[in-house]
Amino acid sequence: MKRPIQIIGSGAYTPQKCVISGEIDRRLEKPDGWTERTFGISQRFYASPSETTSQMGCFAAQSALDNAGILGSDLDCIMAACGVMEQPIPSTAVLIQNKLGLGESGIAAFDINSTCLSFITALDLAADAITLGRYEKVLVVSSEIASCGLDWNNPEAAAIFGDGAAAIIVEKSTNGSGIIASHMETYGVLQDVCRLESGGTRMRPEDDIDDFLDRAKFKMDGRSALSASLSHMPKFIDRLMAKAQLAIDEIDLVVPHQASGMSLTMMQRRFELSDSRIVNNFVDIGNQIAASIPNALDTALKAGRIKRGDKIMLVGTSAGISLGAIILEY
User: Fold this and answer.
1) Does the pLDDT at position 312 exceed 90?
2) What is the pTM of this model?
């Protein structure tokens, strides 16, 4: 059953500091051009100390509100869909709510985390809540600072990431827009392929501070992550399309997680997507964790690549390993 919701506004925020791949080459003591040739990324953006996760999320959220032509007080729910929170307690959504000037509003604010798939998961749950009449206007915002936890001893887990934020506003639709199908699968046997182990209850700094700090850096076996994701993706897409009762060639635009240059190239080849049917902005911003899908979506919307009635697939993978997707009629 199609869930009748529509996106009424979108926005994004890009940190001020642009880091070109030549700078990464020098940091890694590699030849000029090595990073761009190896990973397919020419630049990414890093947040300054003043550009916190919640501050960037606030900027993206305000941009989405302005785009929708509504006020923050018109919202009745704020979902922060971030792979890495600003702090454990209180939630990033609470911090964003307050920075939007809504700290005394009582508007529900909470986090939803499924790492790189957090935006898809939050949008899926927002659609349920709106369809059931629980909320009317929901802000879904993803904001990420990957640069603070990179392990430069592992270039493939460091060179591809960038920081940024993006947001959308959704409400009930009366014009045919809505979520046609959604699907998620998780293969926890691969839990160690991508991990950041400190910051929760597992690692305690009083036990071994050096170990705690080491595990505060993101660890990734990129080859295994890509192999696992690609091996599961074809059947995952088959099950998604069966739910939607659509064929892949009926999808007007695919908006994928910008995981890596290689993953995007292989997805495009596997599903025979022309350049006009896929959004690829990895070369310019890198992997922004959960913010990458809404950022790509906002880019496509602002470029006029999406019009009402188009069928859009939001799709990606995340640590877990998980695969997730939504097919929506815009």
Assistant:
1) yes
2) 0.95
Q: Are residues 24 and 137 located together in one domain of the fold? A: yes
Question: How many other C-beta atoms are found inside a 10 Å radius of the C-beta of residue 216?
Answer: 16
CA 215 to the chain's CA centroid: 23
Contact 176, 300 (CB under 8 A): no
Taking CA atoms, 234 is separated from 71, 231, 266, 271, in Å, by 42, 7, 12, 9
Q: Which domain holds residue 234?
A: 179-329
List the one residue out of 3, 6, 39, 4 whose CA is nearest residue 168.
Answer: 6
Predicted pLDDT of residue 40? 94
Least-confidence region, from 32-41, 197-206, 256-265: 197-206
- How far apart are alpha carbons 18 and 316 in whole angstroms? 25
Are 157 and 306 found together in one domain? no
Number of domains observed in the structure of the chain: 2
Average pLDDT over residues 83-98: 96
Asked whether residue 272 falls in the same domain as residue 324, the answer is yes
Give 80's pLDDT tier (boundaries 50, 70, 90).
Answer: very high
Res 199: pLDDT: 84
pLDDT of residue 229: 81
Q: What is the pLDDT of residues 261-303, one digit of tens each?
A: 989 999 999 999 999 999 999 999 999 999 999 999 999 999 9
Same domain, 58 and 116: yes
